[in-house]
Write a structure and sequence with these properties.
heterodimer, A: about 40 residues, mainly alpha, 1 helix, B: about 425 residues, 434 Repressor (Amino-terminal Domain), Serine Threonine Protein Phosphatase 5, Tetratricopeptide repeat, two-stranded parallel ribbon, 2 strands, globular
């Protein structure tokens, strides 16, 4: 029971912290400032 | 004279220690003085040092301002238009020459321009390490322009190496000089784009937006469309992270229109990746997958495998949400096969991602040791987003098995990770 309470406490705290930084981030991709736009050759 | 810097640059490039280079020629402290331009060197000693370094010829340029100016023109073309053939040709003419400049300022400018052009020409970034080491070790610098340029190259190098905090620190130093140095508007726009990327990766979105806007304004006003796309995509990603999905889509559609006009599939692929990611965030996995699969078709022709693997990973994540086990395992294997054929270090994180998904979707119960290894790997490489993500995953998997002690351990690990990033030392500070 004690362990479960502890788990609940840490998990809740983490949720609030996480929310601001990483929530729903997705995989972003930006063009590199060094890339040749012609790097794709068909 | 820049002869000291040429010796230092070549010594670092050849990985020779000062003690070995100076042996039998001069003392280490004298060599150090020569390298740092603190002493006017004796001609005989210089000749002996150059001989040991196997440098046969050093061009003394009479009109060095001319040399710098003509390289500056190539640099401008390279940064703004990235004309591959033109840059490669000019680089070949310049790379093998050791040019002796009358000042460190010109030497540094020359080397910094060359570094950037080499990066654009597709060099492996680790090949720049000797120059990066040289730039980091420079203590005495006069003038401003070359200090700005050095900080730009250092910032760019660490950005490409995914060391984003370090990159931002150098770029902030460059930013301080941008107002007082003799820097042209197109250089400022290029710098704003790079610092915006660094802010973005450090999750400082308001600063990222401020600088991306400044860069876009210049490219837009001067009709430099290739670079305007860079800014549109970056602004789209910033809005996406701010959860303003409609504005993000507007930016991506502007970028798409330009990329279709100038027929560059490179950008179309990046836009598809980002629009797919918006659908993923909105919870529409089917549309997300359609975009990612379309994107993969274009990226097949790309030499940049990490970009390809980013989309494979996005597909795997979507299939995981949809619980499509077999398709997920197919894509994981596909990703791993690509990495097996290309041992570059930058692809390494993806092999950890894919094997983690293979592990949790295996027919047998998950292997907790493998997930622990993945967490340790991302801790080592400083990718805290994935330390947090996979620690939470492991904590939940343990909780489902009623292993609460293990579960708490990984929840706490994630918490410590977040505290460190937010520079929070005590819970009272929350």
């Amino acid at each position: 029971m004690k362990k479960k309470m502890e788990l609940f406490f840490v998990a809740t705290l983490l949720f609030f912290l996480c929310f601001n930084i990483y929530a729903n981030r997705g995989e972003d991709e930006n063009p590199r400032p060094t890339e040749f736009p012609t790097a794709y050759v068909k | 004279m820049s002869i000291g810097l040429i010796i230092k640059q070549e010594r670092i490039k050849q990985n020779i220690k000062q003690i070995n280079l100076a042996k039998g020629i001069c003392s280490i402290s004298y060599l150090s003085k020569i390298e740092n331009n603190l002493s006017s060197p004796n001609r005989v000693i210089i000749d002996l040092l150059l001989k040991r370094l196997n440098i046969k010829e050093i061009d003394c340029v009479l009109d060095e301002e001319n040399v710098i100016n003509s390289l500056y023109k190539v640099y401008k073309e390279g940064v703004l238009y990235r004309d591959e053939k033109y840059i490669r040709k000019r680089l070949e003419e310049l790379t093998e020459r050791h040019i002796r400049f009358s000042s460190n300022k010109n030497f540094c400018l020359f080397t910094a321009y060359k570094c950037r052009l080499k990066l654009i020409s597709g060099i492996n970034i680790n090949d720049l390490l000797p120059d990066i080491e040289l730039f980091q070790s420079l203590k005495t610098q006069d003038g401003h322009k070359e200090v700005f340029q050095i900080n730009l190259i250092l910032g760019l190098f660490f950005y490409l190496n995914k060391e984003y905090t370090k990159a931002l620190n150098y770029l902030k130093k460059g930013l301080k000089l941008i107002r007082i140095s003799n820097i042209e508007d197109w250089e400022k726009a290029d710098f704003y784009n790079i610092i915006s990327l660094a802010y973005f990766e450090n999750n400082s979105l308001s600063q990222a937006e401020y600088f991306a806007d400044k860069a876009l304004k210049f490219y837009h006003d001067n009709l430099i469309l290739n670079r305007a796309i860079d800014s549109y995509i970056l602004l789209g990603n910033i809005e996406k992270r701010l959860k303003n999905y409609n504005r993000a889509e507007e930016y991506f559609s502007l970028a798409k229109k330009i990329s279709q006009d100038i027929k560059l599939p490179y950008y179309e692929a990046i836009i598809l990746q980002n629009v797919g990611s918006i659908f993923s965030l909105k919870g529409d996995s089917n549309k997300a997958l359609t975009h990612f699969e379309e994107c993969i078709k274009l990226k097949k022709y790309c030499s940049d495998k990490s970009s390809y693997l980013l989309t494979v990973l996005s597909i795997v994540k979507e299939l995981s949400k949809m619980q499509q086990r077999l398709r997920l395992l197919y894509w994981c294997k596909h990703g791993i096969d690509i990495i097996d054929n290309d041992k570059r270090r930058e692809l390494e994180p993806y092999s950890y991602h894919f094997s983690l998904y293979q592990n949790i979707y295996a027919e047998t119960s998950f292997n907790d040791n493998q997930i622990k290894e993945v967490i340790v790997y991302f801790e080592k490489t400083g990718d805290f987003r994935h330390v947090l993500k996979y620690s939470l995953l492991l904590a939940e998997l343990f909780a489902k098995q009623n292993k609460y002690k293990c579960s708490v351990f990984y929840f706490q690990k994630a918490k410590i990770n977040l505290f460190e990033q937010q520079l929070i030392k005590n819970w009272e500070d929350l």
